[in-house]
Specification:
Helix content: 25-40%
Largest sheet: 7 strands, mixed
Number of helices: 12
CATH topology of the largest domain: Rossmann fold
Radius of gyration: 21 Å
Number of strands: 20
Structural class: alpha/beta
CATH class of the largest domain: Alpha Beta
Shape: globular
């Protein structure tokens, strides 16, 4: 149901700080509140039972945790409790850290700070610094071939390019395996996943909104990918969302997938507005090559195509530090200094009769009810 009346001040994470937005009283809006996992005693018991089941026959093999860091604190809490349960059975515990959803250097530093803050006691290794070895026709991180028990740990969430960012994407894009991607990204991800799962028989823990899934990786992945992330919404003219702040919004490349996630949340000609600092600019060299010349990697080219396709029937705006002239020329995206400036532009374009959808962060994929089943 659309709301009107006195609106409390909205706050969006923006880099290392927050920025505010106050909607005028006479605007019609709808808030999509995030659903978050609430750690409690029941969860810790389930984690302990999970660890007990893994450790029954582990002997001297030890454990290797493939931890995909996304900047989400609840995952760090779960990692700490998992290790506390496992260290009863073995002191040979390694944590291989990846951060494919973040800037590589900034993501690693953020992971290190978080692991220290939450007192995670294990051998911590940046997967990007590990050697790769040939195995069954592909290159994999050498640690995957030892005889330790493997556990994949990551946060799952909807993704504008891949549908979901979860276990399969963590393994494929996290640096654990080297893949020569084609234009069929989904097929490449699944091929690598199926081969490694068949050989490694790993276990997995992942969270999706307010649910946690744990067990054999193949079964966990199946359950998570079957869970729908779409939420039916009405016909909105404008959608506004934060992008999670630092380290999530460090570059345009990192947050660009959100444009695709929100494409079907507004009417044709509607506005997708993002709040993202992008202090590191556009993104990687490969992404910039994809933008300027159609070069770069297949994932980067797919991301650029998605932005171009969305901008063909939607308007896109950013409250950001990115240069206005560059973003307008390269992507036909309008940039503003503050969320208030972006909203002022939207009101001039759509008037105060506009219907506005608001997300604190992109935790679901909003889809207009009239378009459900067409995606």
């Amino acid at each position: 149901m659309l709301q009107t009346g006195v609106m409390p001040e909205l706050w969006f994470r923006y880099g290392g700080t927050e920025v505010s937005l106050e909607l005028p009283d006479d605007l019609s809006y709808k808030m999509l509140e995030p659903k978050e996992l609430k750690p409690d005693e029941r969860l810790w018991r389930e984690l302990s039972e999970f660890a007990d089941n893994l450790a029954r026959d582990v002997g001297s093999r030890g454990f290797t945790i493939l931890y995909d860091h996304s900047g989400d604190k609840p995952v760090l809490v779960i990692l700490r409790h998992l290790i506390e349960s496992l260290e009863q059975y073995s002191d040979n515990i390694k944590v291989l850290v990846s951060c494919w959803r973040l800037d590589p250097a900034e993501g690693w530093e953020d992971a290190r700070r978080g692991l220290k803050e939450y007192d995670v006691r294990a051998e911590i290794i940046n997967v990007r610094n590990r050697g790769m070895v040939e195995h069954s026709g592909m290159k994999v991180v050498e640690d995957l071939l030892d005889n330790s028990v493997k556990i994949i740990l990551t946060a799952s969430e909807p993704h504008g390019l891949f549908g979901k960012a979860s276990l399969q994407e963590a393994l494929a894009f996290g640096g654990f395996v080297e893949i020569n991607f084609s234009d069929d990204l989904r097929a490449d991800v699944l091929a690598a996943w199926n081969q490694l799962i068949d050989e490694l028989k790993p276990w997995a823990i992942t969270m999706l909104n307010d649910h946690i899934y744990m067990g054999e990786a193949e079964g966990v992945a199946r359950r998570v990918y079957e869970v729908g992330c779409e939420e039916a919404v009405g016909d909105f003219d404008i959608v506004l969302t934060g992008c999670g702040g630092k380290p999530r919004d460090s570059s345009f490349q990192l947050i660009a997938h959100v444009i695709g996630l929100l494409r079907n949340s507004v009417v044709d000609g509607g506005l997708i507005g993002l709040v993202a600092e992008c202090s590191r600019g556009l993104g990687s060299k490969s992404f910039i090559e994809a933008v300027l010349s159609g070069g770069g990697t297949p994932p980067d080219r797919a991301l650029v195509r998605m932005i171009q396709e969305t901008s063909s029937d939607k308007r896109i705006a950013l409250a950001t530090t990115l240069p206005r002239s560059v973003m307008r020329r390269l992507f036909n995206i309008r940039c503003f200094d503050t969320p208030e400036d972006m909203l002022t532009y939207a009101m001039r374009r759509y008037t105060k009769e506009a219907r506005i959808l608001i997300l604190e962060r992109p935790h679901v994929k909003p889809v207009r009810s009239s378009m459900r089943g067409q995606n």
